[in-house]
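Budget justification aside, the reviewers requested a transparent look at the raw inputs and outputs of the sequence design task funded under Objective 1. We therefore reproduce one unedited record. The lines immediately below are the structure tokens for a 170-residue chain.
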């Protein structure tokens, strides 16, 4: 068997990984139960996935070092402000490698109006599909099911249409 170059092996791994991510994104657009997670919020309180039931919730995995995450945050704030009085919530989950002091500073300086959690151990990201890429955003319906997964910044017009639809459901 001919010896394969490191580039060939790496390319094959990258293609396999991309196909796996693509398949997961496709699979993630159906309705599956949101993973059971416990979020530790910046104020020290905790919330679980079960606490989300009854609301449409955006769960956003992000990092202060992620330029796309930082750029999309004003739109996430606007979305939260637009829907918060209609049974909508937002949980921003900072990745395990993000220094907690950076997350606190970001949340305070940007006056983030929604819940912010720090995934100190990486367990939450692992439970939600081994999140590696940020931002990764999930929309969870009132029944606690993931109905949409976005890798990268979502199209906010499309996102708002989905939120309107989910809020209208009983």
């Amino acid at each position: 068997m001919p010896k394969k170059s490191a580039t060939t092996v790496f390319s094959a791994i990258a293609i396999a990984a991309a196909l796996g991510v693509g398949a997961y994104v496709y699979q993630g657009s159906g309705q599956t139960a949101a993973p059971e997670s416990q979020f530790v919020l910046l104020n020290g309180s905790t919330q679980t996935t079960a606490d989300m039931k009854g609301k449409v919730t955006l769960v956003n995995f992000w990092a202060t070092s992620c330029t796309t995450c930082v750029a999309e945050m004003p739109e996430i704030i606007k979305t939260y402000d637009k829907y918060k009085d209609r049974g909508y919530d937002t949980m921003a989950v900072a990745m395990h490698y993000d220094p907690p002091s950076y997350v606190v500073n970001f949340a305070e300086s940007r006056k983030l109006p929604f819940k912010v959690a720090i995934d100190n151990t990486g367990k939450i990201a692992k439970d939600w599909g081994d999140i590696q890429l940020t931002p990764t955003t999930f929309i969870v319906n009132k029944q606690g099911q993931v109905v949409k997964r976005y890798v990268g910044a979502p199209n906010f017009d499309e996102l708002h249409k989905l939120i309107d639809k989910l809020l209208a459901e009983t």
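The chain has a mean pLDDT of 87. The longest helix spans residues 6-27. Computational costs for records of this kind are itemized in the attached budget.
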